[in-house]
Amino acid sequence: MRVAVVGATGAVGSTILGVMRERSFAADEVVPFASERSAGRRIDWGETELEVRALGEEAIQGFDLALFSAGSHTSEEWVPRFAAAGAVAVDNSSFWRMSDDVPLVVSEVNPGALDGHKGIVANPNCSTMQMVVALKPILDAAGIERLVVSTYQSVSGTGQRAVEELHDQAQAVIEAKELPAPAVYPHQIAFNALPQVETFKDGDDYTTEERKMMAETRKILGSDELGISATCVRIPVYTGHSESVNVQTRDPLSPEECRKLLSAAPGIRVIDDPGNGLYPTAVDAAGQDDVLVGRIRRDPSHDRCLNLWVVGDNLRKGAATNAVQVAELLKVRGLLRRAPAN
Amino acid sequence: MRVAVVGATGAVGSTILGVMRERSFAADEVVPFASERSAGRRIDWGETELEVRALGEEAIQGFDLALFSAGSHTSEEWVPRFAAAGAVAVDNSSFWRMSDDVPLVVSEVNPGALDGHKGIVANPNCSTMQMVVALKPILDAAGIERLVVSTYQSVSGTGQRAVEELHDQAQAVIEAKELPAPAVYPHQIAFNALPQVETFKDGDDYTTEERKMMAETRKILGSDELGISATCVRIPVYTGHSESVNVQTRDPLSPEECRKLLSAAPGIRVIDDPGNGLYPTAVDAAGQDDVLVGRIRRDPSHDRCLNLWVVGDNLRKGAATNAVQVAELLKVRGLLRRAPAN
């Protein structure tokens, strides 16, 4: 079993390596790939080190599995090449997610979608991922007709430069110095809230992030009729996305029943005793694999609507952990071996 | 014309004094009141100074107007006493807001509610205030059936201690020191998002802030049937509340029509060219009296729903500015003079 981790020096890539070690992922060899610039760098791997390699036709031969988190451009080119060389690629970029013959898989939600994959499996967007984990038990029990979602997203999903930008701006505010000009985000992110996550493409009045949330949620939950409205907002949090989710079910579902369902579901921890200050926050979620859910309550404006507060670590369950969980499923279910294309 | 400003040394009280001067509020005498502890303190007032007084039966005689922002306890006791002494009290606390014989007034939205007041006028909650300013033109043009709101609220509404708590925690994070224990908020607020604004009372699963938003919005817009779901969230922003508002209208309303309506309405500035990075943020709203609205767009899940991003300065339009505007209306419309009670 040979595993490639592509984009291994990035925030998600390094988390993938960390999660593999935490979960004792059984691999005979793990090879980290990154840009030419990082090739030759050595990465800690328990008692030994791994040497970072650059992508190339020779270098990508002989892998069973390739976990990608290196951006859409790299995935567009190299995911099919790994697949053609016989590996199954689990891709964290958005490039392949909406392709008809690429399953978009959340391990607790739609593992069956892995059947019959064609060498490429997509890992959903982070804000989508944590939401569908929380929604799946509700969908199964009562059906879901409509979602109105507002997000509170951390900066680490954007990458290391965004984390530094938040830090540098916050420091300038704290020290009452002039703020460095925003470079990663279009506006000041420290002590502010930006109703823009990713970009507005081709005159669209929804961002690409909002479009992803809406389209990917439908694909993962297997429901074309599901109505979704998303407002994605970046806030000054380092790690952990929070979401205010208004769920309109098909059948009535009480908050008590919902709490019971979610408490019994895999990958979810219900923290919901608000009178005693118990509800999930981003700081609590950071470093955890579970999706945390609280503030479960009846929406007083609609007798089939519930409100939920859903929090997850965007680098872990929102990206790295799910990729590794999907890899584990592929292995356990014998879905890794395949003949090379042609 | 003698004006009392009660709670004059607090965040909102001092903003009331500032707004009065900016707007050249015509008063013969302005008297700041605060707690016994602050009595005798001198406050800048243009080329002169005002001396802070303590509340007392003698001290409150002879006022035409009393602008209150000193908390519910003080308002409960002293608002009726000022009113009994012949003043009209404009109260920023929540204590009198839902009383049947107390008008709850936003200057641009329901100034007519001032008619026949009985000496007490209430100033709405900050998060409600900015939202109803944005909603009023929509209500008039197309009717409103339902609102699903998620807020992104700054700490200054909680008061100066909360501002310091955010500062101190952020500084500790930036300097990689141990965080001081939270004292004002139940959890870390720096680089976090707390789905709790104010308190959970008597086992209610909505906070008092959420209840206020829901009840006050109905009272101000004069609609008992209006459905509202509110999720109020505190984020690490110093000043300026942001709101993600999903509006279900009675009649169809296009985003273009909505933009046109709001652009023509008083107290609103539409900033809505997201492809060019133009949308409101809390940092931009701070220090401004207008409510800023952007991200106006069709909710793809409902053909009579629009999404809006509404941002306002919680200390100014959300509190002080509206109180002064209400005072101006009372004066202009001859609603100040009244016989003392009995």
3D architecture notes:
The structure is a homodimer of 342-residue chains. Chain A contains eight helices and 14 strands. With 342 residues, chain A is of the alpha/beta class. The first copy, chain A, folds into two domains: 2-124 and 319-332, NAD(P)-binding Rossmann-like Domain (Rossmann fold, 3-Layer(aba) Sandwich), CATH 3.40.50; 128-314, Dihydrodipicolinate Reductase, domain 2 (2-Layer Sandwich), CATH 3.30.360. In chain A, α1 (11-22) packs across α8 and α3 packs parallel to α5. The radius of gyration of chain A is 20 Å and the shape is globular.
Task: Give the tags.
homodimer; 342 residues; alpha/beta; Rossmann fold; Dihydrodipicolinate Reductase, domain 2; six-stranded parallel sheet; six-stranded mixed sheet; 14 strands; 30% helix
Question: What's the end-to-end separation of chain A, in Å?
Answer: 22 Å
Oligomer: homodimer
Relevant CATH superfamily of the largest domain in chain A: Dihydrodipicolinate Reductase, domain 2
**Spatial shape of chain A:** globular
Strand order across the biggest sheet of chain A?
5-2-1-6-7-8
Q: How many domains of chain A, as an integer?
A: 2
Number of strands of chain A: 14
Order of helices and strands of chain A: EHEEEEEHEEHEHHEEHEHEEH
* Average pLDDT score of chain A: 96
Report the CATH architecture of the largest domain in chain A: 2-Layer Sandwich
**Number of helical regions of chain A:** 8
Q: Work out the strand percent of chain A.
A: 15-25%
Which pair has the most extensive contact? A-B, 58 and 58 residues
Q: Give me the secondary-structure category of chain A.
A: alpha/beta
CATH class of the largest domain in chain A: Alpha Beta
CATH topology of the largest domain in chain A: Dihydrodipicolinate Reductase, domain 2
Q: How would a textbook summarize the main sheet of chain A?
A: 6 strands, parallel
Measured on Cα atoms, how large is the radius of gyration of chain A?
20 Å
Q: How much helix, percentage-wise, in residues of chain A?
A: 25-40%
The poorly predicted ranges of chain A are none
